[in-house]
Amino acid sequence: MFKFLTKLDYLLKETFLGLLRGGWMNWAAVSTVTVLLFLFGLSLQTSWQVEKLLNQFGSQLEVSVYLDSGTRARSIETLVVQMPDVVNVQTITKEQAWNKLVKELGISDIDGATQQLGENPLVDEMKVKARNPEVVPNLATQLAKLQGVETVQYIDEAVKRIAQLHRGLNWVTLTITSILTLTAIAVTTTTIRLIVLARRQEIEIMQLVGATAAWIYLPFILQGIAFGLVGGAIAWSFISVIQQFISQLLTNQPEFIQFITNGLQLTPAQILLLPLILLSFGASVGLIGSLFAVRRFARS
């Protein structure tokens, strides 16, 4: 155990000294990784928020079913409830709709208004809530085929636009992340190579006294991982500041904006997962870059 702690202490000291000696080269690698992880984290967070907003719109998306004048909602309500894509059904009878309408128009004599028109001109309506946005078009088709249904209406344009935005954002994120990942690996590789060359004389002395290649170059690999961890921490702090700024900006806004704001809130699991993803991604980039850097020297 003591021997292991001694080796660990040596590796950590050498890694720390290597970071101090790297100077501006270290910051070149860290800043590149930070930019990569900042854009990746921001895109990932936005993707989560758009997906949640999509589900929020979808969960409140209702299909309005208007029946024929001679058909009552109770006659087909059982059939609608039994549909697998239906999670809730709200029935509004034509009497309820008529009473609400005349009250909104400021008419106090409901019976008199009804007699003046001869009869209640409205029809029974059913508000059907779908399981998710994807099943709404198919559900609307099934509802329209039921006997006694005159019209089926639903608004899916907003959901379609958000879904298209979500898919486009994912493709843009993948493209940008791929390009920046290769760039960050290349910069990390170059930085570690320069550090190795600067300490070439020390490495040769260690080789002469019998140190193994793994023991010599492991601190450089740890330096690459440190680049990624520092870049991930900085990127996460920037993202957190932006998230708080947006939340404060959207406070005390109109009701619809509040609805959007709720859709932008991450879940507790996502809040914990985001920094872990950034740190893991950064460490992986640093590891790959440092392995590329020391591979050629370790073979020589």
The main pleated sheet reads as:
4 strands, antiparallel
- The residue ranges in which pLDDT falls below 50 over 5 or more consecutive positions are none
Strand element count: 4
SS element count, helices: 11
Q: Find the structural class using helix and strand composition.
A: alpha+beta
Q: Can you give the helix content as a percent range? A: over 70%
Topology at a glance:
Elements: H1 2-22, H2 24-59, E1 62-67, H3 74-81, E2 86-92, H4 94-104, H5 110-117, E3 125-130, H6 136-144, E4 149-153, H7 157-198, H8 200-208, H9 213-249, H10 255-264, H11 268-299
Can you describe what's shown?
- The chain has eleven helices and four strands; from the N terminus they run ααβαβααβαβααααα.
- It is an alpha+beta fold and 300 residues long.
- Strands 2-3-1-4 form a four-stranded antiparallel beta sheet.
- α1 packs across α9, α7 (157-198) runs parallel beside α11 and α9 (213-249) runs antiparallel to α11.
- It is rod-shaped, with a radius of gyration of 32 Å.
- The two termini are 33 Å apart.
